[in-house]
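stage 2 :: seqdesign
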């Protein structure tokens, strides 16, 4: 029997359903039309269909001539530069062989770009990062628009890639869609040691060679980075939304269990394909309740603040409208169950070993903090995701996951959480609306009042630190970093510097209309401030020396300047360049960008 839903979870869900009534109905109407039209290849002419498999092996050609033989699309973010996506190179042959074994075919329908914020951090390329999500969504649509498929598999892992794949696939929500992850790399040096060397480098006490050696020992093999940033938060959310096979998220790449899970995905896709008794279109899996489940998982595990953008965008692609107030209200009743770096000392491998997603799902369901009665690609409901995959005599099986945490320093039950609340809060006030990740910030640092020092980009702040000008209490205002200004790059390069100043005993914080990494940590940061400075938001009128108060307890972000005086001030502008490194190609996206609280991308005026 399902646990009674928490009244706040129920209230937020009902509010989302009501708010989304018109947009969700419009989305489902489009999907229903596509369902009634039947499988795409049934509508293709003989010439169309012959083109679609002209280069296929002879056995595949014979199966594809059979209208009862399902054809599964593969859409992949493979490249061999990025550790998380390099393992995907091996997946298509495994998928094709598994499909053949059940009388189906699988085709590599298309690739999508995958860029890494860890590589572009602090570089001009980071200004393409958020908009790459839109490019991935459109690339996914191009791959599926051949309309020759009965189901689809999405191969992608990291920050913008999974959200982009979700958005693109939802345009084909009449298809069953399963997400196939690659898993994290094995653990390298401790996160504490990595942070220590970064701090020394920020102070000029470690050489670049020493820093590089440390980073190479941390990022050392195939798989996702092992800290709990946006990439691993993606994998958690795909479990909470029922788009993975259960327990897929954190199994290492290039292992027998990972290969077995990859092979199981096309088999399951065929079982739930159009025309089967278990037909499970993506549009039914992704609804208001599964979106609330994703938020609950994000809050309970201290996940990435980037998903206050990405999850909003994914939801809108399904006709579901959420905002930061929903995150805030759910955060107040969802306890923090996990301490994973940067919110703790251990990585996702230790989280997985301690009980991982199966434990989190069980705890949230038993406490009524997540919806059990959702549709998943695994069949049944979300209880399937409190199971874990294992190999038994070489065969893939699922067993009940841990009912108790195997390491209470990493993972705890709802009855004994690390914090009584989740890790994301909404801040409001004269400067606009913003979000803050509180789960890694010490209690003493959750409220700060200090004079502003205003910067137009992160390089100005880093230069001021190098000149020794920041050894004092201050709140850094880094503006003109929103979607319209420059594509909303992450400002993760500021974390070591601000962390060092805080460790010296200074009261410091960050206020910005830009993003921080999913790995943002101990320094209080009011991020995604909206309206952004480039839209004439109040950040454009803040001056050096203005007192700013950031209070995560009270949910307040304000500048202590008389309202009339602030309104009378001229609005600053930026002379930042949007040319070079491909940035000139994305001008239309900057001009079309939605505000941060609407997802920040360029597509959502049309999708809303």
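stage 2 :: out
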């Amino acid at each position: 029997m399902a646990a009674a839903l928490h009244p706040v979870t129920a209230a937020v869900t009902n509010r989302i359903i009501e708010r989304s009534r018109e947009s969700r109905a419009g989305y489902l109407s489009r999907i229903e039309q596509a369902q009634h039209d039947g499988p795409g290849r049934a509508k293709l002419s003989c010439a169309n269909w012959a083109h679609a498999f002209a280069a296929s092996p002879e056995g595949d050609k014979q199966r594809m001539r059979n209208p009862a033989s399902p054809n599964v699309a593969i859409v992949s973010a493979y490249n061999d530069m990025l550790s998380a996506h390099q393992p995907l190179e091996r997946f298509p042959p495994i998928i094709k062989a598994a499909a053949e074994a059940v009388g189906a075919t699988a085709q590599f329908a298309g690739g999508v770009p995958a860029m890494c914020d860890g590589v572009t951090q602090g570089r001009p390329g980071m200004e393409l990062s958020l908009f790459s999500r839109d490019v991935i969504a459109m690339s996914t649509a191009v791959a599926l628009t051949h309309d020759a498929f009965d189901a689809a598999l999405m191969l992608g892992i990291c920050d913008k890639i999974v959200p982009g794949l979700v958005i693109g696939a939802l345009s084909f929500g009449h298809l069953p869609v399963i997400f196939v992850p690659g898993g994290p790399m094995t653990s390298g040096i401790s996160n504490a040691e990595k942070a220590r060397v970064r701090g020394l480098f920020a102070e000029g006490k470690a050489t670049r060679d020493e820093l590089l050696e440390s980073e190479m020992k941390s990022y050392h093999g195939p798989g996702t980075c092992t800290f709990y940033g946006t990439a691993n938060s993606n994998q958690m959310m795909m479990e909470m939304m029922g788009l993975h096979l259960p327990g897929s998220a954190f199994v290492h790449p290039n292992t027998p269990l990972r290969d077995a899970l990859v092979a199981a995905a096309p088999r399951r896709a065929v079982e739930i394909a159009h025309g089967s008794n278990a037909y499970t279109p993506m549009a039914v899996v992704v609804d208001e309740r599964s979106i609330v489940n994703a938020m609950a998982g994000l809050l309970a595990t201290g996940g990435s603040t980037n998903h206050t953008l990405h999850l909003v965008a994914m939801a809108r692609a399904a006709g579901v409208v959420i905002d930061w107030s929903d995150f805030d209200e759910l955060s107040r009743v969802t306890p923090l169950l996990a301490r994973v770096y940067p919110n703790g000392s251990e990585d996702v491998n230790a989280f997985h070993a301690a009980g991982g997603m199966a434990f989190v799902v069980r705890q949230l369901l038993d406490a009524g903090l997540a919806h059990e009665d959702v549709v998943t690609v695994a069949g049944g409901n979300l209880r399937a995701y409190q199971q874990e995959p294992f190999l038994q005599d070489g065969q893939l099986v699922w067993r009940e996951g841990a009912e108790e945490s195997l390491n209470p320093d990493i993972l705890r039950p709802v009855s004994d959480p690390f914090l009584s609340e989740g890790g994301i809060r909404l801040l409001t006030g004269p400067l606009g609306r913003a979000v803050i990740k509180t789960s890694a910030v010490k209690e003493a640092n959750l409220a700060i009042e200090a004079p502003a020092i205003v910067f137009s980009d992160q390089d100005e702040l880093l230069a001021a630190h190098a000149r020794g000008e920041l050894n004092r209490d201050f709140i850094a205002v880094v503006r003109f970093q929103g979607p319209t200004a420059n594509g909303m790059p992450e400002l993760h390069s500021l974390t070591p510097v601000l962390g060092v100043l805080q460790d010296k005993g200074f009261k410091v914080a960050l206020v910005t209309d830009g993003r921080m990494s999913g790995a943002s940590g101990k320094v209080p940061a009011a991020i995604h401030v909206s309206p952004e400075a480039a839209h004439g938001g109040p950040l454009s009128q803040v001056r050096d020396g203005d007192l700013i108060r950031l209070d995560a307890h009270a949910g307040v972000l304000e500048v202590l300047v008389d309202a009339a005086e602030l309104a009378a001030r001229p609005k600053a502008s930026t002379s930042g360049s949007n040319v070079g490194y491909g940035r000139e190609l994305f001008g239309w996206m900057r001009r079309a960008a939605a505000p941060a609280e609407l997802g920040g991308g360029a597509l959502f005026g049309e999708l809303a």
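stage 3 :: structure notes
- The first helix runs from residue 7 to 19.
- The chain has two domains: 7-49+59-186+221-400, 424-576.
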